Amino acid sequence: MARPAPGERRRPAVRRSAPILGVLLAIPVLLTACQDKPAALDPHSPEAERVASLIWTFTGLLGLIWLAVAVVSVVAVYRRHEGPRDPLVLAPAGETRRTAVVGVLVAATLLVVLGLTGLSYAAQARLFSAPEEGLVIKITGHQWWWDVQYEGDSPSRVVRTANEIHVPVGRPVLLKLEASDVIHSAWVPSLMGKIDLIPGRQNVKRLVVAKEGTYEGRCAEFCGLQHAHMGMLFVAQAPEAFDRWLVAQRAPAAAPDAPDRRSGHDAFLAKPCVMCHAVRGTPAQGQLGPDLTHLASRRTLGAGTLPMTRGALAAWVSDPHGVKPGVAMPPTPLTGPELDSMVAYLESLL
Ligand SMILES: [Cu+2]
Predict the structure, then answer these.
(1) Up-side HSE of residue 267: CA atoms within 13 Å toward CB?
(2) In the chain, which residues have pLDDT < 50?
């Protein structure tokens, strides 16, 4: 670099780097302005806590390193060299010092990388350690909904439902995850990290939910057109409330107790609905779609696409593709009264 002629002022490098520094400093300020905590940082199970503490350790340590590098860069930009210096002339003492500093920093980088790798490996090993016994729930991913089965000691005690997964607080739960068509991934940020559902393979995940509440989850692996409408809801209940729920779910569907429900029930059984849907206690035994035995006890429809209301049910049954384009449920032509009574029947499936 040419030495500035006497009287000429050197252009300060600082001015050019100022906008970059401004942006870098703005990032943390903007982040702290976020109102809602991302659910992954609001853990409610030991599994999610482990993931969250890993996130904080990584962010903290790497943030510190980032800060140190930023400070050194700023100092380097502002620092003036003392006296005239020809860059082609090497000062041996300075060179050895610099080599030592660079060497130490390279070693420190290696240590940090190895340390963090070890930490994440240890957390992973604990997350996937041999699962103990617990309540077994089999979840099968389909395009674009979740089939949920509570295993029982006999087939009549198996409970089948969809998209809404009830679990008892404080009791270990064993999730067995499979897929029927393509790869899906279950992610409930407050409860557990992502776990893949793979056709032809069973993945297992242990979970203990620490606090009552509802926790939203979704499919985290792009699986086709309605991937974004493949939500799941975990409902964590006190153990007694959960047991009551399980007993209620085990019961067959209530017989229709009013004329419109009765004609809805008859229409349902006469239409192609029965090829895909099961309503236990009736001849409907289809397996391709969600079990509807206790449909109306669920909070949402179509894997979180709509709330469970009368209007939403009517919209779904009359025009499933209008609600969830591409959905694996064909539209069934129904007359107005047929639709009305069928919705009345579905609504009674509590
Ligand atoms: Cu999916």
Answers:
(1) 22
(2) 1-2, 4, 7
